[in-house]
């Protein structure tokens, strides 16, 4: 019996993790990754650090280099796009994007990690120069050049989510005139509960960011380069536009072959199997099980993709896996000017969208005992989302000018293990007055949610 041939489509988080795990766990195996892009495994989540010159080099902002896989015995081909699956023959069509030449490649197992692609607004003028997407290696180079250009002074950022706010932070920090536009009514409005947005929104004004919220972009105008952005609330001058208006699954090429969900997500079962035999899908193009929601939801995170890949590789050669994927919580963090926050699980927006009952609680305090002076005792804020009947913690977020983002990992653990407010209120954390209180921050936040007396 020859080696099992595993083909992986896409070299990002899920594809990389799958390849490494396969080569580490199995001996009689041949692993090949086909990557459509020119640069292997660029981490777009590290773009902000690259733009701020806080990385060793742009080429280092990646999960791995091809040589890292090849020395383990794997193969990787960049500029090679898988364009079709032939399930009956167990082959895929691969096109060299440089030469246009096509070939057929055989597989025993096929892992789809095709990810997502950024959304470009379908409005007039979206093909003008100086309209950039904040995703990928090539765009990083262009954005860096624009950031350093004196010709670029007026910057419009479209999209008030994480990626858009990263762009705002970078360009405002560089002294550019920044306007943030979104159809939602508040920045980060779908990511954080309102009380935390109340704290962050003035920070944008303090840093001279113009907000144009609840606005619809009608067109981009200019001769060759973009010069203005036309919205239903007025016209905004722009030397550069950064579009961070969301992403969609990169699955158009699968239509008619692999079953897709609404929105283009690849339909998988609890074992990440598609409707095709020996064809699996992981990463941002699938809907993983959300532990707090109890149902599949979009959770486009590197951490999610890598956990899915580990699970899949462990069970990929089983006729039927003996256990289903346990699910994920979904946690993330962001710095915005002087503030840092981390969020985990569901918030009011996502819980409502998932159609599950929820209640929220907001807690504000100082991190350390009252005898510590205010200049050494930062304000901290905690928002909790929970089931009003069972008190199961569904989500939470922490915010402060002091870096308390590690508390987001504590919340993730609590949510993943389906802990209640009562559990968190009594959890045994360390105390040392240089760091925290006798009842720690999350103890106090949970006690507050339970209407217990503060001490």
Query: How would you characterize the largest beta sheet?
Result: 5 strands, parallel
Shape verdict: globular
Could you please say which CATH topology of the largest domain applies here?
Answer: FAD/NAD(P)-binding domain
What's the structural domain tally? 3
Radius of gyration: 24 Å
Percent of residues in beta strands? 25-35%
By CATH, the superfamily of the largest domain comes out as: FAD/NAD(P)-binding domain
> Which structural category fits the helices and strands?
alpha/beta
Question: Which CATH architecture of the largest domain is right?
Answer: 3-Layer(bba) Sandwich
What is the first-to-last residue Cα distance? 69 Å
Broad CATH class of the largest domain: Alpha Beta
Please give the share of residues in helix. Answer: 10-25%
In spatial order, strands of the major sheet run 3-2-1-7-18
Characterization of this structure:
The chain is an alpha/beta fold and 455 residues long. It has three domains: 4-36 and 43-117 and 248-315, FAD/NAD(P)-binding domain (3-Layer(bba) Sandwich); 131-245, 3-Layer(bba) Sandwich (FAD/NAD(P)-binding domain), CATH 3.50.50; 331-449, Enolase-like, domain 1 (2-Layer Sandwich). It contains eleven helices and 25 strands. The chain has helices spanning 13-25, 47-51, 66-70, 137-147, 162-173, 194-206, 302-315, 348-353, 407-416, 421-426, 441-449; strands at residues 4-9, 29-34, 75-77, 80-86, 91-96, 102-106, 109-112, 116-118, 131-133, 154-158, 177-182, 209-213, 217-221, 228-231, 234-237, 240-243, 247-249, 279-281, 289-290, 295-296, 331-336, 339-345, 359-366, 379-386, 393-400. The longest helix is centred in the C-terminal third of the chain and has 14 residues, at 302-315. The termini are far apart. The model has no long low-confidence stretch (mean pLDDT 95).
